[in-house]
Every structure is written in C-alpha cells, then in structure tokens.
Design goal:
Blueprint lengths: L24 H20 L9 H4 L7 H20 L1
C-alpha cells in the first residue's frame, strides 16, 4: 500500500533523540510554503508548483491555499521592497 508522507505531520520533522524543530503545525505549514514558493525559487530560479491542484483538492479544513499564497506574496513583496531600501 502506498502512503503519502507529509512534512506537515508532527513526526516528519522529528530527529534522533526525539527533538522536533517544528512542533507547532503552523510552523510546519509555513516552512512547507516558504520552501515550495520562496526558498527554492530564490535559490534555483525554478517554481516548484506545477499547477496540479492536489493541494486544493486535499482537505485543508476549508482553507484555500490560493488565497493564502496571494496574501503571502503581497507580504513577501512588501518585505523585499523594505529590504531593498
């Protein structure tokens, strides 16, 4: 049986000795989104989103990832313009 693992699960970030750098689900989701839509793009110039829609189809408690990303992008642009000044 194939089972998708997810970086938002608590045990995913656990390391040897039981330490977990991201115990709070919000921290794990933030890191996932930053990696997928910011860090990777900045580092390699490639957008990791392929537009498959799987993140929208997944049950996220009624949260529309597209709306979060729009707000996230607005905030990121503000911070980036502040840093450039």
């Amino acid at each position: 049986m194939k089972m998708w693992d997810s970086c938002v699960r608590c045990a995913y970030a656990a390391v040897a000795g039981g330490a977990n750098p991201r115990k709070i689900v919000g921290d794990r989701i933030k890191h996932r989104l930053m990696h997928k839509f910011v860090y990777f793009l900045d580092r390699y110039g490639i957008n990791m989103c392929v537009g498959c829609g799987r993140c929208i189809d997944a049950d996220a408690g009624g949260i529309d990832l597209r709306e979060i990303l729009k707000k996230f992008n607005e905030e990121y642009k503000k911070e980036k313009s502040k840093a450039a000044k």
